[in-house]
Amino acid sequence: MTEEHRERGDERAGFSRRRFLAGSAAAAAAVAASSTVPGLAGTASAATRPNVLLIVTDDNPKHTNWAIQKTIAWLGGQGVTYTNGHVTTPLCAPSRSSIFTGRYAHNHGVRNNGASHSLDQSTTVQRYLKQAGYRTGLFGKYLNSWTLSDDPPHFEEWALLQPGYVDAQWNVNGTVQTINGYTTNIIKNRTLAFLNKATTDTRPWFAYVTPYASHEPNTPAAQYADTVVPTWNGRPSVPEADRSDKPAYVQNATATLADGKAVRQRQLRTLLSVDDAVQAFKDKLAALGQLENTLVIYIGDNGFQWADHGLLGKGTPYSPAHEVPFYLSWPAGGLGSGTTDNRIVANIDIAPTILAAAGITPGTSQDGKSLLSGFNRDHLLVEWWKQGTGGVKDSWASYVAKNKQYVEYYALHTDAAGTVSGSGQVTFREYYDLVNDQYQLTNRLYQATPADEQNLGIPALAAQLAADRQS
Questions:
Q1: Beta strand 205-210 with 135-140: parallel, antiparallel or unpaired?
Q2: Cα–Cα distances in angstroms (integers) from residue 277 to residues 189, 207, 227, 284, 385, in the given order
Q3: Burial class of residue 364, CB neighbours in 10 A (0-12, 13-18, 19+)
Q4: pLDDT per residue as tens digits for the range 143-157
Q5: In whole angstroms, what is the distance from residue 6 CA to residue 416 CA?
Q6: Domains in the chain, ordered, with CATH?
Q7: Using one digit for the tens of pLDDT, what is the confidence trace for 426-467?
Q8: What 3-state DSSP class applies to 205?
Q9: What CA–CA distance (Å, rounded) separates 235 from 36?
Q10: Is the pTM above the cut of 0.70?
């Protein structure tokens, strides 16, 4: 059973470091003037604090640019394109919890889609912003397994979606109801109404906007149901003939190029409506005079494999599952000129970035770093846990760098609350040279000798991965 089934219920050359740091300095200056908010340190004054528009799409792979051209024109052309954007757990609820908290899943506790109620809501970015005087709104999907009738904490206004595309169930400000229509368009209109309240409410605002697109069943709006998408004949990882160096679940995978093409087509068509919504948000912000001082972030909650290594979906350590589109724009903070940033960045960096822009010091530790700073990590921890004992793959963790990736699978599983059980024994390992093998076709650890492992630096990578998992 796939995680999707369980869940249902160019590179523009040369990002300028000097230009980025200048933008960071402008951002720091923008939040330098501070006022005192009880329990919060260094909160910027209301006059300088940016509005925040956070757009999180669902199962959105990195290579979907054709469908989000308006989004790219705005957030890439008048902001920053992150070419090495990742999620730290390629699964919806853990990833979204990392977005909210800036923490790895092993620290926030939402290790699977059933564990949403395990999240400490006092650690979320929405809690800090609301306490600092922000007007907060949620429009769309929240967390998997969240009870629809339960109001989402720390949001002043919401239209919480029970995942679906047409005539879905919603919790609107505490009232569960059916709203007819296409859900991406409903989310767009609810968000626009929230933004428009800035004409009479002078507080800075935070809007968390999260359409169901491009999650399966990837139902497009009627106007895009038959839109012709660009042809795609797969990556080298799709027709991979010999998968004997991969774990058993990959060796037994059966997805074909035709399967990958079909889901890609549906995903692109659903994202066209998201792109329309993003353009509408830009137009509204321009009309309100708030385009300059709104921090806008766009990210997918995880990627998706289009039959790479015979697999459809997410939850694997392979690049298409954890690489995501990632854009940011904040002209008033110096990040509005259309730059490319090739640092390794992730969903855990979103909450620290928002809080830094707002001048808020969180009361809990965070694993991520503000994108407004000059940090430059050399690798990222990516992790995933098997829920229950019946899955076809073991839990795993991975050291991901630009030039290499090391993976360990473990005899571990979680219960519905995210509690981990098992021996923790390593059951399989993979190592990929991402410079010469970007499609992860050759596992260098398959039949490797101890000398081979030493030459690849495996002992040091294994030690670092163990440390990262405990951090």
A1: parallel
A2: 8, 13, 18, 11, 34
A3: middle
A4: 999 999 999 999 999
A5: 12
A6: 3-375 (3.40.720.10)
A7: 999 999 999 999 999 999 999 999 999 999 999 999 999 999
A8: strand
A9: 53
A10: yes
